[in-house]
Amino acid sequence: MHICMVMAGDEEGGLEKHVVELANALVRAGQKVTLIAHQKYATRVHGVIFKAVDLSKSRNNPILLWQLYKTIKSTQADLLHVQASKAAAMVSPLLAWLNIPSVVTVHGLKKNTKVFKKFDRIISVSQNVAQLFTDTTRVRVVLNGVQQPEKVTRLAVQQPLQAIAIGRLVSVKGFDVLIEAWQGINAQLWIVGEGPEREALEQQIHRLNLTKTVQLLGQRDDINALLQQASFLVISSRKEGGPYTLAEALLMHCPVISTEVGMVAQILPERLICPVDDVLALRQLIQQSVANYPDLQQCSQPLYRLAQDQLTLEAMTANTLKVYREISND
Predict the structure, then answer these.
(1) Secondary structure (3-state) at 132
(2) Which has the closest alpha carbon to 260: 174, 185, 181?
(3) Residues 122 and 202 in one domain
(4) Per UniProt, what is one GO molecular function of this protein (predicted)?
(5) For the chain, how big is the Rg over CA atoms in Å?
(6) 62: cis peptide before it, omega within 30°?
(7) Closest C-alpha to 21, from 167, 150, 147
């Protein structure tokens, strides 16, 4: 099967990671893949036919839409897979002329779902996202998965416990709520990532006198090594599609506590989840996890097995191929 994938934008986040890793995994699974995306991603795919089109410009640009139409048409692909809302908004009006089976992946909660409804199948990355659609006959849930680590070795637990939070330093990740909640917590916290909120978060850490317990580590490329050292992961997001960090931590046998976002409620038990944007609830969840850490470790054991079954890149690829086969002539 020849799959043409389309990704708009030129950012660095979970969406871009998802598309690049899925494209590479589909090739390894024996499929032919063409990826239409910004030039910056060309070196990140392997065995994938890459066609550079800068879709970071306005989605209403007629010249760009014509270029996109011609590029998709030139691939002569068997199936079109469009990623996220901007690419969907650009491709949706072209579907009538493309005459090709089509799939769109919805990565997060959206107020307006109209642009997704012309596609033959809608992949949602969580049950929460699937519930956006009243007609579920074309909706399929495929959870985000990550590359399974070759070796999982947990380091001995030390006191005070070492927590970790990972993501771009942007408002949606709720790191300001996490830092606020960290007051009075008898544990260390690493926040890994870079972004426009860094200065504000640094000021918040100093204002709350948390410089001895909360560290901003910046962008790192050794996430698995950090998860190996961490006692638990905290997800404090206000809104999420996946999140990928949930899969990464559980595959490294690192316990996770989280706000109720994305696919979290499908994976974690209720006792490890708290409401979004609620400092007191998050602080209470963190305090309980620190005070009863052996219990957190014990209740996380079944989650590691679940992650092996459902949250690997291989599982995500296999489930995506099942969706393709529903509408493909191959």
Answers:
(1) coil
(2) 174
(3) no
(4) glycosyltransferase activity
(5) 21
(6) no
(7) 147
pLDDT at 140 (0 to 100) = 96
Same domain, 101 and 129: yes
Averaged pLDDT, 218-245: 92
Is residue 152 one of the residues assigned to a domain?
no
Q: How far is Cα 271 from Cα 247, in angstroms, rounded to an integer? A: 18
| 37 plus 110 within the same structural domain | yes
Which CATH number is 68's domain given?
A: 3.40.50.2000
SS3 of residue 315 by DSSP: helix
Angle at 126 (CA atoms; ends 123, 127), nearest 5 degrees: 100
Do residues 88 and 9 lie in contact, with contact meaning Cβ atoms separated by under 8 Å? no
First to last CA, the chain: 6
The amino acid sitting at 232 is F
Q: What is the pLDDT of residues 74-112, one digit of tens each?
A: 999 999 999 999 999 999 999 999 999 999 999 887 888
Q: Are residues 11 and 139 in the same domain?
A: yes
* Residue at 20 is within a domain: yes
pLDDT of residue 118: 94
- In sequence order, the 6+-apart residues with CB closer than 8 A to the CB of 284 are 274
Q: How far apart are CA 54 and CA 195, in angstroms?
A: 22
pTM of the model as a whole = 0.86
Q: Residue 259 has what pLDDT? A: 97
Residue with tokens 């043409």: 4
Evaluate whether 198 touches 299 at the Cβ level (below 8 Å). no
Map tokens 């990623």 to a residue.
83
Residue 153 lies in a domain: no
What is the pLDDT at residue 155?
81
Q: Which domain holds residue 210?
A: 161-310
3-34 per-position pLDDT tens digit: 999 999 777 777 888 999 999 999 999 999 99
Which 3 state secondary structure label does DSSP give 140?
Answer: strand
The amino acid at residue 134 is T
- Amino acid residing at 298: Q
Residues 132 and 214 in one domain: no
Answer whether residue 154 is part of any domain.
no
